[in-house]
Write a structure and sequence with these properties.
The chain has 229 residues and is an alpha+beta fold. Helices cover 34% and strands 32% of the residues. Strands 1, 2, 3, 4, 5, 6, 7 and 8 form an eight-stranded mixed sheet that branches. Strands 9-10 form a two-stranded antiparallel ribbon.
Length: 229
Amino acid sequence: MVHFERARSGDASDVAIAFVDLVQFTALTDIHGDAVAAEAATTLSELAVALSGPRLRVVKSIGDGVLLEAETRADGVAAVVGVMEGVHEHGFEARAGVAFGSVVRRGIDVFGRTVNLASRLSSVADPGMVAMTRAMAFEASVAGLPVTPLGSVAIKGMRESVEAFSTNPCSHGGRWVVDPVCGMRIDAEGAIAMSDVDGRELGFCSRTCADLFASDPHGPTEEDRRPDP
């Protein structure tokens, strides 16, 4: 068992590391203002803290993201599912990366390849999805989550590609869309200005986002905003 109170010792151990961050946080801030952005970031942090316990801890909040450390692969999967579903319930969207392996502790922080890999995997996950290594994908499938192979993924800063998988952790019913302008996740039935653009069914959280899209429908896409992995 991992005793998190040993964090100051610097001992290395195998744990599940998850990095969860909000989608299009810069656009959300720009369009809806600082207060909404702060609410989203605070909500993410509070959701993670609410799930923490002897087998899971929040390592730190990093602006629009949180870094989690779980004792086992199963705990890591459960933590990500809980955080992602909570984010969705509050009307925001997130993506995550999860990896299992050794970490080195310095104070309350963790370092190492596993931490870097989890962070980088989050950047290749689609909105609402979790990208993970094979070991974590196996655990996700055991938990009943649908797993899709992503193939061999090049990870920035790592010499070798990583075999990655993706899963949708959300069990919410209904039909959902992600606002292409600000990244907020909304129920399709309550979306504003639903339209069919280039074969895509789109919905918007507000008239502001709908008007912005109408003025520049071929502006930056989610792929354009995504940082290089």
